[in-house]
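chain below, 298 aa
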Amino acid sequence: MSAVDFLAQEKIWFDKPRYDEAERRFYEHMNCHLQPALAPKDVGANSILQDIARARENIQKSLAGMKTTLCNRGSGQPSMSQQSQLSTTNTSSSSTADQGELISRIKSLEQENQSLHKVVDNLRAELSKLECRVAVLEKSPAAVTSAPTPAVPYTNGTTVQQTSSALVKEEEEEEDIDLFGSDEDEEAEKLKEQRLKEYAERKAKKPAVIAKSSILLDVKPWDDETDMAKLEECVRSVQAEGLLWGTSKLVPVGYGIKKLQIACVVEDDKVGTDMLEEEITKFEDYVQSVDVAAFNKI
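prediction:
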């Protein structure tokens, strides 16, 4: 089958654009005839249509603006530079205050640094002067001592005069010493001996400190039939220089037996515990044993 026969049999509407145009004209003609009658009813519709048209215009304008911005970005992005300029202008106002504070701090630090440099330079100069003086003293002390030396300043601002004059006086005194003796030496020795004697006499007049002790003795009898009053009388009969008897009491031991507990004060140089035990145990009829219950220095 050929192509012409196929197209002859095919049902195609070749005249459709013509019919569409005729239909559009018909509806436009009908709309023109009906518009005067529907005018009061379509006032609200026209206002809505006007609003819609305005909205479309605004949308088209915004789209056009977006297209221009996109074109600008694609060409070289000049808008970004403008934005950066705006941001820099905004941040510059806030950074000026910080820069002022930093500048003031830097100035104060520079001033402190300069003052410290001055102090260090002064210290170095003084150290160099001292080193020179020490070297001169080590080489020729006699020449240095003969000449007056200036004051040496310390780091804290105070000055101290060197003892050159004192050194000169000491050397003169050493030169004036008489190696073979003189009347002045004899007088000095006599004066020294006299002062020593006076010191010894004054020391002898002072009362010597006597060392004393407090002793508590336990005197035990043979049995419960021992006369404790007679036993105490025998103990107190022991007398010696530097011995002073004190209070006493009877302390029960057991099985009706009581011991005599008596206190005394003794001078350590004159009376001892051994002497007291020997003297008290001589009363064999009443005393069985003697013990030291307490011993305290006074």
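Residues 76-81, 143-163 have pLDDT under 50 and may be disordered. The radius of gyration is 67 Å.
thats it, cya
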